[in-house]
Structure formats: C-alpha cells, structure tokens
C-alpha cells in the first residue's frame, strides 16, 4: 500500500515500466501512442507508470516486463562490486521500485538480489556517513539511490548529535546525596 502523503513514494510510483497487454483493451488507445484507433491490441508493449501497471497486473490485464535497471548485465556489475555501481543513474528509487516488482512477482530472484545489493552497499555507506565531515568532499552522494541518501543523512545526523552531546552537552554529575557519609549504627538491623 502506498503512503499517500509521502512525496518520495509518489515519485517512485510515477516511474515508467514496460508492460505487455494480455488481452485486447477497448477504449484504452490513449495509453499506447502508436495506436491508430481507440483500442490496445493483445500483445502490445506499452510504457506505463508503475501505479497504473500495478493495478492492471492485479486485474490480470497485463504483465510487467523486468526493467532494464534489473537486467542480467546490471546484476553482474552489482555482484562484482556493489559499492562502485551508480544505481541512481539506473533508477533513483532502485530498492523501492524493486520491492514493488517483487510484490507483483515479476522475477522470483529479484528479492534476494536486492537484499544482497543493499547489504553490500550498506557497510561502505555507513563508513562514509560516520567519517564524513561538514566540509568533506561528497562526490559519491549523487551515485546513491534515494533510500541510500536518506540512510547516509541519518547516519551523518546521528554522528553530529553524538559529537554535540560528547563535546558540548551537559556532563553526568554525581548526585549530592551520594557524596554524604551516612551515620551507621553499630547494631545490625535484623536483630
């Protein structure tokens, strides 16, 4: 289910995917720019936004072809070294779109692939977030997906908050009551 008020989710749902119609669609010719009449023929390949394709797949009107950002060539690149691949240029919402396609059962191997990709990139992303300074050179930032950018910013913000607490924040002080000596009676309490 889409988050109605999340702008990132709205932008992700607007990404286009290539689809193949399983049945003739009368009155849907406006979806296919190459259609000469008001109908879409069976087997027609049409690029649709993900939100529309998702609904039509659930109605079994069409099926989604795997986008090129998840094809075998890209998977080999990512498996070779996940941290060096520019996923943002392939799809800014790489993981989110992949998860939506997994829900639609486009490719059964896509889910494990996305998991290993994120695991491979997360360690490097976390190291960069924890060591990035305010004036540091962040050349790698445009190569991150939207999800990775949010993770990076959250990591960097937590480091800033920790440094502020550690260097400027109030110190833990010993309570005054702990500093006083108690007068103890020589008689035990249990007698």
TrEMBL record:
Residues 70-165 form the GINS subunit domain. Keywords: DNA replication, Nucleus. GO terms for cellular component: nucleus. The keyword Aminoacyl-tRNA synthetase does not apply. Residues 5-56 form the DNA replication complex GINS protein PSF3 N-terminal domain. Its main location: nucleus. InterPro entries: GINS_A, GINS_bundle-like_dom_sf, GINS_Psf3, GINS_Psf3_sf, PSF3_N. It comes from the Eukaryota. The keyword Iron-sulfur does not apply. GO terms for biological process: DNA replication. Transmembrane segments: none annotated. It is found in: Nucleus. Belongs to the GINS3/PSF3 family. This is GINS subunit domain-containing protein. It comes from Physcomitrium patens.
């Amino acid at each position: 289910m889409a988050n109605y008020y999340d702008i990132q989710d709205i932008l992700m749902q607007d990404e286009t995917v290539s689809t193949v119609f399983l049945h003739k669609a009368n009155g849907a010719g406006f979806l296919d720019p190459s259609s000469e009449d008001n109908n879409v023929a069976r087997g027609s390949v049409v690029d649709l936004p993900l939100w529309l394709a998702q609904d039509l797949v659930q109605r079994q009107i069409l099926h989604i072809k795997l986008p090129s950002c998840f094809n075998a060539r890209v998977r080999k690149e990512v498996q070779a070294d996940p941290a060096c691949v520019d996923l943002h240029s392939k799809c800014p919402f790489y993981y989110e779109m992949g998860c939506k396609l997994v829900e639609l059962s486009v490719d059964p191997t896509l889910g494990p692939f996305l998991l290993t990709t994120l695991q491979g990139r997360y360690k490097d992303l976390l190291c960069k977030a924890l060591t990035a300074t305010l004036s540091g050179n962040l050349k790698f930032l445009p190569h991150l997906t939207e999800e990775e950018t949010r993770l990076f910013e959250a990591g960097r913000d937590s480091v800033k908050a920790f440094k502020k607490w550690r260097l400027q924040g109030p110190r833990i002080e010993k309570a005054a009551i702990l500093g006083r000596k108690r007068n103890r009676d020589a008689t035990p309490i249990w007698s």
